[in-house]
Amino acid sequence: MTLPLGDLVAIIPELIVATVACLVLVLDPITPPSRTHWLAWLSVASLVACFGITVSRMDATVTAFSDLMILDPYAGYWKLLLYVVTALTILLSLAYLRVERIHLGEYYGLILLSLAGMMIMVSAADLLVIYLGTELMSLSLYVLAGFKRFEVRSLEASAKYFVLGSFSSGILLYGISLLFGVAGSTRLSAIAAAVGTHGLDDPALLFAMILLVVGFGFKIAVVPFHMWTPDVYEGSPTSVTAFMAVASKAASFAAFLRVFLEGLGGLREKWYALFLVICVATLILGNVVAIVQTNIKRMLAYSSIAHAGYALIGVVVAGQAAADNETRALGLSSVMLYLAMYAFMTFGAFAVVALLRKGGLEGEEIEDFTGLAKRQPLAALLMLVFMVSLAGIPPTAGFIGKLYVFMAAVNAGLTWLAVVAVLLTAVSAYYYLRVVMVMYMREPDPSAGLVSRLTTSPALTLVLASAFAGVILLGLFPDPLVSITTSAVLPFK
Amino acid sequence: MANEAVPLNYIPILLFMAIVVAFAVISLLIGSIARPSHPYPAKLTPYESGSPLFSDARVPFPMRYYIIAMLFVIFDIEFVFLFPWAVGFKQLGLLGLLEMGLFIGILLVGYWYAWKKGALEWE
Amino acid sequence: MVPVFFSYFSLVSILAGVLTVALPNPVHCGLALLTLLLHVAGLFLLLNAEFLFVIQIIVYAGAIVVLYLFVLMLLNLKTDERVLHHRYAVILVAAAAICGGLLLMALRSPFQGAKGHAPVEAVLQDGGSYAIGITIFNEYLLQFEIVGVFLLGAIIGAIVLAKTPTAVDVEPE
Questions:
Q1: Which of A135, A267, A295, C23 lies 20 to 30 Å from A395 when distance is taken between CA atoms?
Q2: pTM above the 0.90 mark?
Q3: Is the domain of C62 the same as that of C133?
Q4: C-contacting residues of B 62-91, CB under 8 Å?
């Protein structure tokens, strides 16, 4: 047995992220509090390096550790998205954590550990490794959710997330163990082979599949496994909420798609119907319940549930048994495209929420945005763009994302689903544009004590500029990203 | 299940446990039969050097017990991995040593962090 | 002999599991959990998984139950704070029905499960922990190191959430 050098070279980005996470945790106790931001810059630098390495390897497909990890363009695409989101999170946190008085170095260590878990999830080709990656990601997020330890809401979010998250992990693990029992291995390829030989009628396989749907359903927060989302998103520090809503959702979608398309692809005529029901329920509930929310973070939480529903349309198309491989690949690439668009607009919206203050506290109620256009025209303009994009109005990224998902659905003969989704998009415009209306149509109320102080910093400007540029540029010139997603889809057999 | 697969080595332990349980049950039983039983309220109160009770015995434990117990569990799990490694060490060779070195190195980061943050101090 | 022990361990495990969530006194729940963990250890022993048997007792019955008891003492729950409310009985019945149905589904599977490639005799020859050691450090090397990173996250998380419950003041740059 020799040292698996080739395998180690293949997972260099993962190694860099994990090593820098350890480094940050080693340096944190000996860094003076006024120098904590150095750790943040160290983390960002490591992400830039990883970005370069992953880009240079985008075209190759390499397996490592005897097929435990697969480094294909699909994984590469998600990793690039995760690097960008993580870097934006760190830059956003720099200013946000300081004003929230929770600027501690371990925050960046935990963010990087979480990222390492996500990277393992997106490139694992083995259920056990996917499970471990999920756990590493979630564990760090449980802690990050409770990072404002002196605030009851934050601790409540952490506890709720932890209990429901471990519950769902348990269910996921039951499913994995059943699949292991049937296939004799946790490799996705072995499971696909077992599905092929046992056919569709094995109840144990179906049972395992249902458990996996439940387990992953919790992670991507779709109806009826979404209950934790509003409370957790509301209570967590806003920078963590943005990270959770975007990065953990993208990574979970990536792993979930790989498991269901590669491992359980043979069972797709069974899970297709299940996802169709979940998709419609998610779209309806997310969009309708978002209307009655008064807290912007809760509203964005329901909006993120609804957006998971839109992405699920692509999953349904990719899982259609009757459709040909091209149609299904279009469905998959539309999911990948949609989540990238979703990442920029949702992150931007949360970033604006993070910088808005009201008397030293976070201005989280939608009412706090009253007359923002008069007080802070630039912030209001940014929020306007993000809201318009979330509502799916051209010429923004949100429109392009929805367009491709709906096109995939129509192409696969699911016109009714596209029509339902378009109708619900019209519903969603109500609650997104209500924020715009509050910002622009109402006069600021001088007696409400709304302080127009924003927590700005160069890093925060960079975050907002990137999110803004992402939303506008991807809306106007989506072709490069579309071609990347088209070439990075999983191979359909 | 094949006959030789039954863990016969554990039969003595089973017998041992049976004796332990039997001893406990029998001695309690004999005690309850043989001792006189005349309870009255003063006799049933908890003993606190003869004086009336100051407070409820159920005071909340300090948080530090929890931190120590939590760290103990984590390092306990680390030990669990050391055991099979030590048993198979000869065959695992240098690579095994490196793997375990990395594993312990990662956990030493946690130990360093706990040490520096004062989580191991009783204050 | 084996079926007798198996029925004993599994029946007591199920009973203790129910008692863990149903008993009114939290400390009794902890003890029921201990019973459950010890009997599951017995099941491991019947499967010749001696290593897991020992680990189950050392880590779960030893360390984790002690941790739970510390937490119970920390929270100082009163015995009358019942967790199992009667109005949730309907949900309980529904959950039991769904679980039963799913279990039936699994039992009806024509497939008996894949056989491992290590026969019992081969494992017993060198001892279970030797076999586990060789497997972990060859086949499951990557998973093992991920577990290391995961445990690191757990240490940091435990300390972050339990220590320094105050806001930190940072001087402006």
A1: A295
A2: yes
A3: no
A4: 62-63, 65-67, 69-74, 76-78, 80-81, 83-89, 91
